[in-house]
Give the backbone structure.
Amino acid sequence: MNEFAARLLEWFDRCGRHDLPWQRDRRPYAVWVSEIMLQQTQVATVIPYFERFVARFPDVEALAAAALDDVLALWAGLGYYARARNLHRAARIVAERHGGELPETLDALIALPGIGRSTAGAILAQAKGMRHPILDGNVKRVLARYHAIDGWPGERAVEARLWALADAHTPSERIADYTQAIMDLGATLCTRRRPACTVCPVAETCGACRRGIQAQVPAPRPKRARPERRRAMLVVRDPVGRVLLERRPERGIWGGLYSLPELDDDDSASEWCARRLGATPVGEIALPELSHAFTHFDLTIAPRLVTLASDSRIVMESESLVWYNAARSNLGIAAPIRALLDTLPEPGEETAWHEPSIA
Ligand code: SF4
């Protein structure tokens, strides 16, 4: 047995958890339910949920026959409900295609909803004693630190390396205990913050501990630059000073709110006014740009103020277009657009802005 596994198992025999409900009940079904519950949830929280769940749905057949609502009711409070839905769906598949017995190959398990490579490995290792490595979030952290690996574990190359190391450390004996031991090490000693290296069984040979870089390993997910979008918007003002607003589609940003009409890249303000209003602008100026941060991107709005001729005969064909009069309107307007409308120059004072360009 390799030194890492031997030390871990010696520590597990002394200090590990040996009496968890899914260690007493090593049936593949029970181990499967526990592994799904333990994704994103700590052991102490999972235990009562696991016991209630397995008492109510003691095997695959019982779970497959249950109504989804009953399954979700027992899951209530655990969160991440997709786990429960996948578990239920997978139980029905196992009942229909595998005679109610969980398949015993990695590939067949991974083909079921909600089971990835690590969960499949954990099920086979713990329920069947089959030698399969696991690599959940805790194990990634332990191995990244132990081998002082650079890079974020979510990167393909880093993850591939961690899988290779997980495989190399996995012994061929006591596989169920080893699987529990490495998960326990990550959950109890090699924690995300302040790992307890002074009592860690593998500290002597741990790369991160030797170099004092535990806090920097594993590297966090790199921050992605926020995407930026740019939209030209029209501030169309009629001869009496009202501004044209357009109701946005229900889906998408500012869904259902009123905003300024948007101008496509290949469209000009005069073409837009002719097409949508049957009217001709007498002048167009660029207003100062404004920025707005959405959750997933930054939007830069480039407004263009267009004034219609006093003799315009305006035809409004679209019901989504309205004339907005600040003094007499309580329309639902997107906040940045309202701020822009509040600072518009008075009619006749537009030249206070620079960059005039006549359409
Ligand atoms: S020595 Fe510290 S950093 Fe290394 S595996 Fe143990 S707890 Fe984690």
User: Anything to note?
Assistant: The two ends are 80 Å apart (CA to CA). The longest strand covers residues 298-308. Residues 352-359 have pLDDT under 50 and may be disordered. Strands lie at 228-237, 243-247, 258-259, 262-263, 281-286, 290-293, 298-308, 321-324.
